[in-house]
Amino acid sequence: MSSISPFPFPPTYNFPPFFTPQPNTTTRHAQLKKWSSLIQSWCRHHRQYRLSLIEAVETPLFHNTALRKRLDLHEARAVIDWMTKSEEEGGGGRRAEWISDAGGASSSGGLGNGAGQGPKSVAWIWWRRPEEWADVVLEWVEGTGQRGSVLTVYELIHGEGAMSQEFHGMDTDVMLRSLNVLVKRGRAQIFGSEGQEGVKFF
Q1: Could you say which DSSP state residue 37 is in?
Q2: According to the UniProt entry, which residue ranges have a biased composition of type Gly residues (predicted)?
Q3: Cα separation of 183 and 175, whole Å?
């Protein structure tokens, strides 16, 4: 991560009320939209697909040390909750999704609800939704004349041919979700055992 240029925070990040839940419904909606945009931009910049809130509340994303203002875990969770809802539900257009079985010691503890992960502590952040990633992958496959060929999922994520692509280095689970969108559309077929998956594009 050290080679990544500093993240450009938006002007609202240096505005103290940005860190306080707004009581007015209209203002609150605008605030949540700005937080959603910031979280998506942050994750995209850092090539991050999952966000552990317990870890994230200690990072500059939610903690502005210059202002001495921060979003606590409860409020960060409220923002992600809003991002998981569709626009029709008054939410942020499904730009996040809770990972229910997100195991791992790195993000456990601190929630006080017994065994393992607490609910709503790790989420996918969809700066591109799986449907959108599916379009990006298919465009690359067609643009490089690989329709009809078989590629491994590993090649797609780590191969030299895709180094210039935004999906290079992608989380394997996100890639599989995106490829499954193409399967449903009849544009791809996945075969092979877990960890050794191959994909044929049509």
Answers
A1: H
A2: 106-117
A3: 12
Token reading at 184: 């449903």
Distance, in Å, from the CA atom of 133 to the CA atom of 126, rounded to the nearest integer, reads 10
Q: What is the fold of 130-201?
A: Arc Repressor Mutant, subunit A (1.10.10)
Could you tell me how many residues make up the chain?
202
Pairing between β-strand 122-125 and β-strand 50-52 as defined by DSSP bridges: antiparallel
Per-residue model confidence as pLDDT tens digits over 49-104: 999 999 999 999 999 999 999 999 999 999 999 999 999 999 999 999 999 754 44
Which residues share a beta bridge with 124?
A: 50, 97
Torsion of CA 164, 170, 172, 174, to 10 degrees: -120
Question: Which residues are CB-contacts of 81 (< 8 A; sequence separation ≥ 6)?
Answer: 120
H-helix segments, the chain: 25-45, 53-56, 73-84, 130-143, 153-158, 172-184
* Six token digits for residue 135: 């379009």
Give bridge partners of residue 137 from the DSSP assignment. Answer: none
Provide the β-strand partners of residue 201.
Answer: 188
Tell me the residue type at 74. Answer: H
- The domain covering 11-125 belongs, at the CATH homologous superfamily level, to "Winged helix" DNA-binding domain. Chain C. Domain 1 (1.10.10.570)
Q: In whole angstroms, give the CA distance from residue 202 to residue 149.
A: 8
